[in-house]
Inverse folding.
C-alpha cells in the first residue's frame, strides 16, 4: 500500500534521499530544526473543532536557501511536518516511509547532492522516540523503507527532509518553479515558508486567491535577503475529481534565477526582475511582448527552401499550403527520426547514428513553431503567435513563470482561424492542447512584411464543443448456438481530444511511420542510412523481432483496455487500427476489435436468459453519498460526448422483454444522457449518448450533473430477458 508519508517525502525530495549516519552536518541540521530554539516543541494541542478529524497538521514548514561564492552555488531546502494522528486510517497512512538512495544534481557543474532525514514520535505523555534512519531502513531493490511501528491514536509524528545541492555555474541559471497550495486534506494549525537569498539571485513571488503575502525580514547584511510567509487555522480542503485547485484555493508561487553578472540575466529565457532585491510579482502583457520580441528566432533553413520548391508544383489554396507545410515539418523534425530512435533504444544500432530530433533541438514550443512561422512569412501568409497558459494553472493574470506559457500559431484563413500547435508525433492543425481552449491568452501580432512582432493584445482561445471531442462506438453482438458466449464486433472512432489522448496510448511507431514515408517520398532508416548488405540484414532481422515483441505487448494492452472498459474479461481478442487520424483534426482514429464474451452477462433462467445488456456501453461513474454532497465547483478538461450504438442479434425463437428501462432522457444545460431501444427486424438496436457541455460548472449546477451521471450508471445495471417463444400446435 502506498502511504501518504511516502508521497509527501518523495514529492519534496524529487524521489531522492541519502541515508547517513550521525555526521556533523546531520547533527547541525537536526539542531537547527529540533534543537533548543525549536518553536514547535510545545505544539501538541488541537482546537476543539478538529477533534473528530482523522489527523491534524500541527505545523508544516518549507525552507529554501540560495547562496553562492563566486561560481559555486549552494541550494538548500527542507520540508517539515508535525502531524497528530487521531484515527486508524491516519496511522495506517503514516506507518511507512520509502526512500531512494541517490540522486544527481542536473544544474551547472554539479557535485553529488545529499538529503538528510529525521523522524520522531511524540507520545501523549510527552515521551519522544527518534528513529535511527540508517539502522532501521531496509533496502528493497533501489529503495529503502522504514516501518514506523507502535503508532497509536493521539501520537504526534514529526519528520523532516533536508536537501543540500551544491553546483557550479559560470553565467546564469533559473531554478525550477515552486507552487504550493496553503491547505491540505487535513486541517492545519500553522504553516510557514522561509526563503533566503543574496545578491545575484532574482526572486519572482506572488500569493493568490487570498493566500498570505510574503514579508521581508530586515537583516544586518546588505547583500542578504530574508522573507517569510505564515498562516494559521486552516481548514482541510477536499481535492475531488474535476477540480482545478489553483483556480480557487489560496496558494503561492515563486522562482529564483541566478545571474552572476547583470548582463547574464539578459541571456536567460525567463521573466526576471529589472533589479536585484526587488521581488517581481506580476508579468504584464508588456513583459510578454518584450520576452517574445527578444527571444523569438528568425532565420532561413534549407528545409524551408525544399518545402517551397515542392509546393511550387502544386495548385493549392492558402489553407492547403499551410496544412502541407505543417505536416512536412512534423515529418522532417520528428517522425523521420522515430525508427532510428527506437532502434537505438533497443540497442540494435548505436545511440547516435543520424541526426537529432525536434525533441532535442526544438523542445520549447516557441522554438518548435518557429520554422512554421518562417514559412508563413516567406509565403506572405499572415499569422500571429498565441501565448497561453493552461486553465489548470490559473488565469493569465496569475502567470508568473515562463514555463507557464505555451506558444502556438494562429493563421486567419477564409473567415476562420487555424491554430497550429507545437509539433508532436501526432499533432494536427486545429488540435491544440485542451488546457488552452476557452482560456484568456495573448495574441502577439506579427508584421508579415518585416517579420517582426510589433504588438500584443488579449485573445480568447476558441472553445470546442462536446461533438468535437467524441467517442463513437458501434458494436454488434451475436449469441453462439449454445447460448453461452457472445461474439462481438466493435468499431470505435475517436475525435478531438479523445483522439489525441488515445493516439499516445495506442499507436506504436509502425502504425504511422509508413504513411509518413509514403506521403513525403522518404525512405526507411535501413534503406536511407545503412550501406552494407550485412548490416541491413542484421538490423532488419532484429527490428522484425522487436516489432513482434512490441505488437504482442500492444495487443495485450488494448485487450486490457477493453476489459477495463467493460469490467470483465474477454476472449479471442483481435484488433486493427484502420485509421490513425494524423492528417486532419476531423479525421478520426479508428480502432476495430473482435472478441468473445463468456461467463459474463448471461444467466439462464429456465428456458429463458437474462442478459446484463446495460454493461455493454462500458463502465460509468458511480457516485457515493460524499460525491453527491460536493461543495466544490466543477472544472472539466473539455466538453465531450460518448455515443454507443449496440446491435444485438436476437436468437431465433426468442423475444425480448424489459426494453422500457432502456429508454431514458435526462438533459439540461450541463449535459445529458439519452438512450433509446427498439427491436427492428430481429435486431435489438440501442443508442446511447452521454455528453458534457461545458468546461466549467458552478457548484449550484452539480445536482444537474448528478442527474444524468446517475442515469448513465443506472443504465449499466439494467437487464433484458430473452424469452423463449412458445408455439401452439395446430
Amino acid at each position: 500500500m502506498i502511504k501518504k508519508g511516502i508521497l509527501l517525502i518523495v514529492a519534496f525530495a524529487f524521489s531522492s534521499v541519502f541515508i547517513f549516519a550521525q555526521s556533523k552536518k546531520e547533527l547541525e541540521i537536526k539542531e537547527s530544526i529540533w534543537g533548543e530554539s525549536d518553536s514547535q516543541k510545545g505544539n501538541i494541542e488541537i482546537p476543539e473543532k478538529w477533534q473528530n478529524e482523522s489527523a491534524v497538521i500541527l505545523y508544516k514548514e518549507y525552507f529554501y536557501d540560495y547562496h553562492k561564492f563566486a561560481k559555486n552555488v549552494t541550494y538548500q531546502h527542507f520540508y517539515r511536518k508535525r502531524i497528530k494522528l487521531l484515527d486508524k486510517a491516519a496511522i495506517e497512512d503514516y506507518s511507512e516511509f520509502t526512500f531512494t538512495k541517490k540522486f544527481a544534481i542536473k544544474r551547472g557543474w554539479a557535485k553529488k547532492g545529499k538529503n538528510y532525514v529525521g523522524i520522531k514520535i511524540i507520545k501523549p505523555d510527552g515521551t519522544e522516540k527518534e528513529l535511527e534512519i540508517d539502522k532501521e531502513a531496509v533496502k528493497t531493490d533501489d529503495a529503502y523503507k522504514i516501518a514506523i511501528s507502535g503508532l497509536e491514536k493521539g501520537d504526534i509524528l514529526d519528520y523532516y527532509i533536508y536537501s543540500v545541492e551544491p553546483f557550479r555555474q559560470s553565467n546564469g541559471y533559473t531554478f525550477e518553479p515552486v507552487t504550493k497550495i496553503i491547505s491540505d486534506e487535513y486541517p492545519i494549525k500553522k504553516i510557514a515558508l522561509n526563503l533566503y537569498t543574496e545578491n545575484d539571485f532574482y526572486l519572482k513571488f506572488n500569493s493568490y486567491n487570498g493566500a498570505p503575502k510574503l514579508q521581508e525580514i530586515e537583516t544586518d547584511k546588505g547583500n542578504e535577503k530574508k522573507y517569510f510567509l505564515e498562516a494559521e487555522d486552516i481548514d482541510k480542503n477536499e481535492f475531488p475529481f474535476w477540480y482545478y485547485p489553483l483556480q480557487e484555493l489560496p496558494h503561492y508561487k515563486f522562482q529564483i534565477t541566478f545571474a552572476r553578472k547583470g548582463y547574464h540575466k539578459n541571456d536567460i529565457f525567463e521573466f526576471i526582475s529589472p533589479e536585484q532585491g526587488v521581488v517581481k510579482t506580476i508579468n504584464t502583457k508588456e513583459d510578454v511582448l518584450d520576452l517574445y520580441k527578444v527571444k523569438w528566432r528568425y532565420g532561413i533553413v534549407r528545409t524551408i527552401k525544399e518545402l517551397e520548391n515542392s509546393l511550387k508544383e502544386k495548385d493549392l489554396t492558402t489553407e492547403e499550403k499551410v496544412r502541407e507545410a505543417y505536416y512536412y515539418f512534423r515529418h522532417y523534425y520528428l517522425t523521420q527520426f522515430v525508427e532510428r530512435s527506437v532502434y537505438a533504444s533497443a540497442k540494435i544500432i548505436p545511440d547516435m547514428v543520424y541526426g537529432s530530433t525536434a525533441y532535442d533541438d526544438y523542445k520549447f514550443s516557441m522554438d518548435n513553431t518557429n520554422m512554421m512561422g518562417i514559412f508563413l512569412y516567406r509565403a506572405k501568409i499572415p499569422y500571429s503567435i498565441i501565448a497561453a497558459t493552461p486553465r489548470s494553472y490559473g488565469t493569465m493574470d496569475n502567470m508568473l513563470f515562463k514555463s507557464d506559457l505555451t506558444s502556438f500559431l494562429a493563421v486567419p484563413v477564409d473567415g476562420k482561424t487555424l491554430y497550429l500547435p507545437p509539433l508532436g508525433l501526432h499533432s494536427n492543425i486545429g488540435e491544440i492542447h485542451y488546457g488552452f481552449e476557452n482560456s484568456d491568452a495573448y495574441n502577439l501580432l506579427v508584421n508579415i512584411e518585416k517579420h517582426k512582432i510589433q504588438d500584443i493584445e488579449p485573445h480568447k482561445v476558441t472553445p470546442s464543443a462536446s461533438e468535437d471531442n467524441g467517442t463513437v462506438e458501434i458494436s454488434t453482438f451475436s449469441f453462439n448456438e449454445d447460448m453461452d458466449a457472445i461474439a462481438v464486433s466493435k468499431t470505435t472512432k475517436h475525435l478531438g481530444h479523445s483522439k489525441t489522448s488515445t493516439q499516445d496510448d495506442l499507436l506504436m511507431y509502425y502504425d504511422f511511420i509508413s504513411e509518413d514515408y509514403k506521403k513525403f517520398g522518404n525512405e526507411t532508416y535501413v534503406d536511407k542510412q545503412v550501406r552494407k548488405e550485412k548490416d541491413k540484414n542484421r538490423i532488419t532481422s532484429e527490428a522484425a523481432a522487436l516489432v513482434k515483441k512490441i505488437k504482442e505487448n500492444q495487443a495485450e494492452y488494448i485487450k486490457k483496455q477493453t476489459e477495463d472498459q467493460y469490467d470483465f474479461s474477454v476472449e479471442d481478442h483481435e484488433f486493427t487500427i484502420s485509421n490513425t487520424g494524423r492528417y486532419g483534426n476531423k479525421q478520426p482514429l479508428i480502432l476495430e476489435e473482435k472478441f468473445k464474451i463468456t461467463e459474463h452477462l448471461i444467466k439462464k433462467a429456465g428456458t429463458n436468459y437474462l442478459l446484463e445488456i446495460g454493461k455493454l456501453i462500458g463502465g460509468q461513474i458511480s457516485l457515493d453519498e460524499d460525491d453527491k454532497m460536493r461543495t466544490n465547483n466543477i472544472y472539466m478538461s473539455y466538453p465531450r460526448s460518448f455515443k454507443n450504438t449496440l446491435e444485438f442479434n436476437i436468437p431465433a425463437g426468442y423475444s425480448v422483454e424489459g426494453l422500457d428501462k432502456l429508454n431514458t432522457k435526462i438533459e439540461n444545460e450541463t449535459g445529458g444522457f439519452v438512450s433509446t431501444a427498439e427491436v427492428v427486424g430481429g435486431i435489438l438496436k440501442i443508442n446511447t449518448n452521454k455528453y458534457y457541455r461545458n468546461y466549467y460548472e458552478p457548484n449550484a449546477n452539480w445536482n444537474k450533473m448528478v442527474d444524468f451521471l446517475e442515469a448513465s450508471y443506472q443504465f449499466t445495471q439494467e437487464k433484458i430477458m430473452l424469452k423463449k417463444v412458445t408455439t401452439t400446435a395446430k
User: Anything to note?
Assistant: The chain is about 25% helix and 35% strand. The domain at 302-460 is CATH 3.10.620 (C8orf32 fold). The first strand starts at residue 55 and ends at 69. Residues 628 and 645 are 29 Å apart (CA to CA).
